[in-house]
Specification:
Elements: H1 2-22, H2 34-69, E1 84-87, E2 91-94, E3 103-107, E4 113-119, E5 124-128, E6 134-138, E7 142-145, E8 152-153, H3 195-200, H4 207-212, E9 223-231, E10 238-247, E11 256-261, E12 264-269, E13 273-276, E14 284-291, E15 300-304
Parallel strand pairs: 4-8
Antiparallel strand pairs: 1-4, 1-7, 2-3, 2-6, 4-5, 5-6, 9-10, 10-13, 11-12, 11-14, 14-15
Helix pairs in contact: 1-2
């Protein structure tokens, strides 16, 4: 309204100046002397120039005032061009939509990240990580700013292989003596990954991690050197002492070995050799199984007797 009033005032001043110009002497009116006419026309021309200048200045001032009072457009009125996300509580960001997927990072309150996709069925946002990768952020604590309508619906990656507990228990091999099989080392970890399954999904897993989650294989061989000492008694000699030296190659991933004598546990050792002193002159079956925190291998056996 103020702009209209100022414009109207300017137009009135301009009209007044034009009317004043019309009052100048015309050809039909008797003109005074040359000097007197110049003196009379000078004030009138000056008044017209002043009126026109005032009118123009008034219009310019009204235009500037209108421009200054108009609200400038803001970049936030339409939201950010690229959607971004923040959280109000620490939220895990994983390789897929669910806790079965590996953890990539924990997104903290106060941080922001660019959103590049969405998975509406489970309320997940796919965001860029600081290292240039991506991860799946659960949307329960998330606030997304920007236009998300154009974001692509992402397809979840294959679910990780479900770990299974070890079920095979090493046997003691041939048992020519008495007694039952003793307890053997078992896995202390809650997870075991089948190597055959891992081979089918090779690119999805870090080989170093998989190797750390595998149990060792059995020793490829077992050597036994037997030394016997006899008492010379008639009619047959009597065994005085017997020493059996066992040795085997080291096994990858093994943290120790369990040694068996006729199916009974003799000892655990971290080395690759041990001595045994059986009291029998006849056949004795020795066995060795490798183990680690994941589980135990099968048992490699060897039977020996006094010469």
């Amino acid at each position: 309204m103020k702009l209209i009033n100022r414009f109207f005032t300017a137009m009135m001043i301009l009209s007044f100046g034009l009317l004043s110009a019309c009052n100048l002497p015309s050809r039909g009116v008797k003109q005074p002397g040359a000097n007197q006419g110049q003196q009379a026309a000078a004030p009138q021309a000056q008044d017209l120039s002043n009126a026109l200048t005032l009118a123009v200045q008034t219009i310019q001032a009204a235009t500037l005032t209108a421009q200054a009072g108009a609200p400038a457009p803001t970049a936030t009125s339409a939201g950010p061009a690229t959607p971004t996300v923040s959280v109000n509580s620490a939220t895990n960001c994983r390789t897929g939509p669910g806790t079965a997927y590996d953890l990539v990072l924990t997104f903290q309150p106060g941080a922001t990240a660019e959103v590049i996709g969405k998975y509406s069925p489970s309320n997940y946002w796919i965001i860029k990580t600081p290292t240039g990768g991506t991860c799946w952020l659960w949307g329960a604590y998330a606030t997304v700013q920007g236009n998300t309508a154009a974001l692509a619906e992402m397809v979840p990656p294959p679910a990780p292989v479900v770990a299974e507990a070890p079920t095979d228990i090493p046997s003691s091999g041939s048992n020519s003596g008495s007694g039952s099989n003793p307890p053997t080392p078992t896995a202390t970890s809650a997870f075991y990954i089948n190597p055959g399954i891992i081979q089918n999904v090779g690119p999805l897993y870090n080989p170093g991690i998989i190797q750390a989650l595998a149990k060792p294989s059995a020793p490829p061989s077992l050597s036994v050197s037997t030394t016997c000492t006899y008492k010379s008694l008639f009619p047959v000699p009597v065994l005085k002492s017997r020493m059996d030296h066992l040795s085997w190659p080291s096994v990858s991933l093994a943290t120790g070995y369990t040694v068996y004598v006729n199916g009974n546990k003799l000892t655990n050792t971290t080395g690759t050799s041990v001595n045994s002193t059986p009291s029998s002159i006849g056949n004795v079956t020795f066995g060795v199984a490798a183990y680690n925190s994941i589980g135990s291998s099968s048992t490699t056996t060897h039977t020996s007797k006094c010469p």
